[in-house]
Amino acid sequence: MTTAPSKLRLPGLLRLLIATQLAFNIGFFTVLPFLSAHLGQGIGMAGWLVGFVLGLRTFSQQGLFVVGGALADRYGVRPVVLAGCALRIAGFVWLGFAEEAPAVVGAVLLIGFAAALFSPAVESEVARQAVVHESEGGSRARVLALFTVAGQAGAFVGPLLGALLLHVDFRAVCLCGAGVFVLVLGAHAVLLPQHIPGRTRVHARGGIGPLLRNPRFLALCGAYGACLLAYNQLYLALPAEVERVTGSQEALAWLFALSSVLVVTAQLPVTRWADERLGTRRSMAVGLVVVAGGFGLVAVVRDAGLLPAAGFVVLLTLGQMLVAPAARAWVPDLAEEGRLGLYTGAMSSVSGLVVLVGSSASGALLSSGLPPAVPWLVLALVPVAAVGVLPRRTQKPSRERPASGHR
User: Which range is the signal sequence, renumbered to this chain (predicted)?
Assistant: First the structure.
């Protein structure tokens, strides 16, 4: 009788961090969807250079998450988040005024590195606080699902705001994105504690070796990376299928909107059901099988217009809704004491590497001239294989559970 309220009420720090994810994505996605067109049409960059710049942004962000996570473990969440926000503000302002390729590259690298600082710091603290919340009778997975919903809502609102500002010019879009991060910086300077109870600081050195010798954590990274690779097919395989079926890519916007609406409206009910019925490992396993079903649907159901593509989006999104919160909830149980930031960042970096390599392979597969169903069947095997990679046991005491969580 006494635990029900704690499942509904989140402490102030968690509410701040979840709101942070919403604001981060509003600011970021105000700019990102319009960057490619600005580089090609506004500045006149060649197509290969546009792709190179966008790839640099991904590398400077996802590839360096492990660095940001390690810095958060060493210096605490607050200074790393504030530094990341300051760099993101500078990067967006620089991008708004950049007119030559070197300046654009510098701005994009700064924008990516900023996220590599603040994102793993925030994500690792959300995971740690979710463990505390669980120890007090709440649900760890529900907290992480709320974090996912906040991020998806920001990704939905950001492009709408950017599209309105684009009627002025791209510089106005960038300055608005910078303005969002000015607000985030100010809020965190006031509200984010200097010292979070229960969080210990460790030396930056000495964490990578044990991480690389942790087969269960690396297996989790591989399985999560396989799911992200599958989810990345929204931007690679799905456009090719929509083009094949309709002769254009106009329907893509509606299919992407369908995915966003599903996450915002269904993430919490799905996570609640999975938390009560499945548990961490089985949530990931079921989610990966559902993702595989989405690819199999497109491979098997041919000549049905956009229905298979829509079914793919629904199943892929549903699978991701099962996998992502479960994977984040699992990390604290596998992380070395005091190094949750490092492990959170490493999962993103390793998964990003899986996506980078796998996307190259899937792109070659899609353009190989094979019958259209074959690439989809091959892609369906990736999440199925990931089920076999998942670590076998999930129930063990978390070494990242702070003592304050039991008080």
Answer: none
